[in-house]
Design a protein that fits this description.
Layout: H1 7-22, H2 29-43, H3 45-49, H4 53-61, H5 69-74, E1 99-100, E2 107-110, E3 115-118, H6 120-141, H7 150-163, H8 171-180, H9 191-201, H10 211-225, H11 229-240, E4 246-250, H12 260-266, E5 268-271, H13 286-299, H14 305-321, E6 327-332, E7 335-342, E8 347-348, E9 358-366, E10 385-388, H15 391-396
Parallel strand pairs: 4-6
Antiparallel strand pairs: 1-2, 2-3, 4-10, 5-9, 6-7, 7-9, 8-9
Length: 397
Amino acid sequence: MSKLLRPEVRERVLAKHAELRDAGTFLRFDQLHACYTRFYERFGPKALARMEGKTLLEALFLHGNKDSLVYWLEFKNDEELPDRFGGIGGGSAYKFILFKQKETGQWTTGSPRIPKVISEEEAIELATKLRDQFIAGCKVLDPLNSDSTYADYQRVNAELIRVADQLQSKTFAHKYFALLFPDVLDDFHALKWQQHHLRLLGTGGDLTGDRYENAYYFKELTKELGVPMNELTITLNIQQGLPRRYWRIGTSFVEGHSLWPIFQREDMVAVGWPSLGDLKVLGNSKPAKMKLAERLAKEYDTAHAPTASRKAGEIMAFRHKIEVGDIVLAANGQDILAIGVVSEDYEFVADAAEDTCHRRSVDWLVVPERPFQLPIPSEGLRTTCKEITKPDNMNFI
């Protein structure tokens, strides 16, 4: 296939890789190979097939056991398996499907909202079923190689859904498979990490796919750049940082009148439509958006239905999609007035001045003496809240 990266992007990544290599950041080949070998010997499909009963249950899902699979995947960080293969920390133990509660000693499955305590016999039965899915998943992934096409990865993803339906969407399972197939699977175990790096690289690929489909692009990048997968992902993490989204927030609710002084003084960004009230009650669904569009059309005399729907989408994004840590650009038309980072969740201030009741607190990082423009200044024009997705703009920021 054609090259994924533009020449200047390729040079930038290779320069950072060389810098990190010279600084001794990466594991040596023999160290890396030893880590993969140890993991395979302990938890590869042949090892799992030999385990049965309580031994299997505790070898896979007992967090208190430092030799268990779940411990190795989430906490292991020593010479046997250093912290170089993508993290899956955070969240609760429910993310592993099955775990033993420390306080009660009871095996538990389900979800935080609907926990389900099960007997040891039931836990063994579930662990056995998941073990079989791990083994089946390895058989599905085994044919992938450096020449596999995107269609091959799509077929693998579909087959994983069929034979390992409980594991296919789990981050811990992705890390398990990535440690066994490190040349064809990346170690960005969450979809948003994959999308973040591919967007910033400007690969132009279809980023609507699943994790096992997106792995194709990282496999191709290792060929294009001539670097091992583990070194590529470490390089990208250091060079491109944590996943975050970029948002253009308009500063003029009324033409000719800028709210930027209020934004700057009160360390926040805001959108209008005060009569909508507190948006914390606004659901995050398509029906909720449709109801919001109908209300906008009625209350603000938005006669053109597509306009009401578009504005409803902008409000939904401000309420539900922007996250703490995301980057915002205060904008007036094509002019960027400041760059900041979102520091708090959405809040509603009923008595806020000049319709700035719907707010996100911001730490302003850059407030230039003169406004500047993005490389593609037309992105997000005539919008109140719009995600910035053009790689040229994202890398510029």
